[in-house]
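PROTOCOL LOG
Step 1. Enter all chains and additional molecules of the complex.
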Amino acid sequence: MGRRTVILAAALPALGAAFLLPAGIRQSWVGKSQGPRQQGKLSMTRQGVQDKMERAFMKNAIMDKRSFGYTLVEAESEYDADFRPGQDEDDDVDGEAEVFSPLELKAMYGEEYTGPFKEVDIGSGIGDFSLPSYSKGELIKGIVLEYDNGGALVDVGSKAPAFLPGREVSINPADKMQDIVRLDEELEFQVISDGDEDGAIMLSLKRIQYEKTWESLLKLQAADASFKGTVTGVNKGGAIVLVEGLRAFLPGSHLSGVYADESLVGQVLPLKFLELNKENGKLVVSHRRALVDSQMDSMSRGDVVVGMVKLLKPYGAFVEVNGMSGLLHISQVSYDRVEDLSLVVQPGQKIKCMIVDHDKVNGRIALSTKTLEPEPGDMLRDRQKVFDMAEVTAKKYHERMEAERKAREEAAKDIVLGLSEGLTGLDGGYENLDSDPLAGLDAFKMDPLAGIQMEPIYTDKEGEK
Amino acid sequence: MAEGPRQTINQKLARFFKVGLHYGHKKKEWNPKMVPFLFHSFPEVNREYHFINLYETQKYLNKACRYLRAASLKRKVILFVGTKKRLASAIQQEAMRCGAFYVNYRWLGGMLTNWKTIQKRIRRLRVLETLQAYGILNYYPKKESAKLKRELEKLNNYLAGIKNMPYLPDVVVLIDQEHELTAIKECKTLKIPIISIIDSNSNPDLVDLGIPGNDDSVKAIRYVLHRLARAIAGHQQSQNDKLLVQTALN
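Step 2. Run joint prediction.
Step 3. Record the structure below.
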């Protein structure tokens, strides 16, 4: 008896289980130190290490596992704040017994507890038993839960939260996800993938935005309205413009009034559509067209305008006038022969010229400086004089042209009247055009220029006009 | 509960519904051993998915809370394991709240059964942390410094939760059973009790204390984790809160 008690007494501490476990739980850590793996030197279990700890320096260090204590983490979102301890009615773990058998539950809750769920519980309205399944392309509403790596998780009422990738947040890739998509915000999304094995679907905001933007752009194009766009970049062919969030191309030839270089970036320009193709994603705009309408009416033939030379070609210079592109042909520069155009005008220079012809449809103008020369060849000799006297010369030119025109008309009238001597019914004009005015004429009989005074355009160099 | 229930059972369960704890997996993916925990719904309600019996959920959740409360009072080491990508921050937060340890990125093979080797990695992590704290890393040549920083980042990722764990855990809390099969196997080898959320496709025999519930929804998992974390450390906190409230009122 004594021996047995001694053995028992020795055995008890060796068991190592000095604590009571809650009823009903498998006591699997009792006797852990006596398991086959834990024998010998390999003593990485609680018992073994505790022995070591008494010897090792680590006893004084972190090994009190409560040493880093209880960190109170700030509530990051609404539903997190919901769970603050002490506020929840569910918080009933202050050591009370919480394991109830069905009979106990029935006793506690009485009629409300109907035992394990039966089919009747569906109608009792305690909860939502629907589990929606979404298909690709659907538009659904969801609440943003939290930011995950590379995206955001959205609660759409399904088993697993839906994922919104960072790439699908906005058309403009520079936008930050945190700015557009805030926590606990309800937004409308488009489903872009069917559920994976967990039932998690992928969502997109970008696609909805894309559709809306294209719709509004098509409307603008249909109305041929003018809109604004910001220049974001410049390349060899022209400029890249941001139009309602989409990137459009503005060709260099359709950019007017300003030079296409880096200084243009950030400017807002009025634009109109040149080409709009949704399938290819093509979006081409024109600055010139937007200005054309406003400018075209203000100009007419014979106006003296100031323009900037944009480009030199062997056959002439392209001059930018009031937003429109005009051609100053080399033959129209001066009465004298111009050998090298670059000696006369340079790109970037401002020159005065007269509008000779204009084409409203294409927005093109034909220009001339010849007519502004007080004396022939002045453009080559002294450009500045030409420019200074441009208005005066132009006026003179117009007067002269008018006079010439009148004179020609008179002459023509005389001719016709003379011609019409052989005809009947003609009375000072071209009213009767049924018969050929030259019929019955002897062309050599009459001198068409007889009696007409015509002034030469230029006198000789010493004389004045 | 001598006075009787503070809320009706419907009101208590409303929280579970709100959080989506009752959603189960597809019917064709179920595990028949889960029969006692499931509610077999009418085809009119849902043809495809199972729903989970929330009375059982409540019962086992309370059970788990009590168990963890007892364990924490006895100063046991508790380990949270959840390797789903979208739960990384949730696991870390809840574990830190109550002074438990966690594995929120990949569960390295042999983390428990090969604990001795893992400890070597933890020692390496500490060394690198010290180097960084004293700024010595910047004095290395560029390439080496970058290499060491990368190593530090990687080790931190995997081991940050268990670098302070003194010895093998006494309880392990899992989230998704299918995801953590390696962890379960290791715990079984070492005879460590497992608490886990079990869904309609999980095996309740593998775990020691299973809480039937939805293991996919972030909201649902956060709720369960929060309840468990509160059970582990909430005793102190709720008492502190009560003190605060009292002092505020006075």
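Step 4. Note key features.
Chain B has seven helices and eight strands.
The first strand of chain B starts at residue 23 and ends at 26.
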